[in-house]
Amino acid sequence: MSDTPGRTAKTAVTPPTHTTPPARFSHGLRKGNLLQVAGQVGFLPTGPGRPPAPAGPTLREQTAQTLANVGAVLTEGGASWEDVVMVRVYLTDTAHFAEFNELYDAHLAECLADGSAPPARTTVYVGLPAGLLVEIDALAVLG
Fold first, then answer.
1. CA torsion, points 78, 138, 29, 142, in degrees to nearest 10?
2. Fewest C-beta atoms under 10 Å: which of 86, 115, 125, 127?
3. What is the SS3 assignment for 72?
4. Which letter, b or e, does each residue of 12-39 get, where b requires 16 or more Cβ atoms within 10 Å of its Cβ?
5. pLDDT tens track, the chain, 143 positions
6. How many CA atoms lie within 13 A of 134 on its CB side?
């Protein structure tokens, strides 16, 4: 963090359900009224010293856990899905697009019950570590 006058400090955001990342990054980073949630995958919560494991082999299981993991970072950073302005989705298979959309739409219908506009979204196809099917990051603006 920087204490330079006129500069807003950056604060790492790590929910208690998340383990230390495998590389040098924060699960979330807050600066002023911005909260960037790093790419989250469908790992189940785990304790210190225990390796993370995927929620299951299916897109449905991994998407549900990935959205929960994004939500945990949002909550820890003082935000909610209503504050999210941009979501980036990374899928490993183009055949998963329609199923993912159904799961994502149902999740947002629950989280945006106030009728607010859904966030902007980009979806791309990538390679992820073995067994992982989806990764999601989000940008939230608070206040």
1. -40
2. 115
3. helix
4. ebbbebbbeeeeeebbbbbeeebbbbbb
5. 445 666 889 999 988 888 777 778 889 999 999 999 999 999 998 877 778 889 999 999 999 999 999 999 999 999 999 999 999 999 999 999 999 999 999 999 998 887 889 999 999 999 999 899 999 999 999 98
6. 32
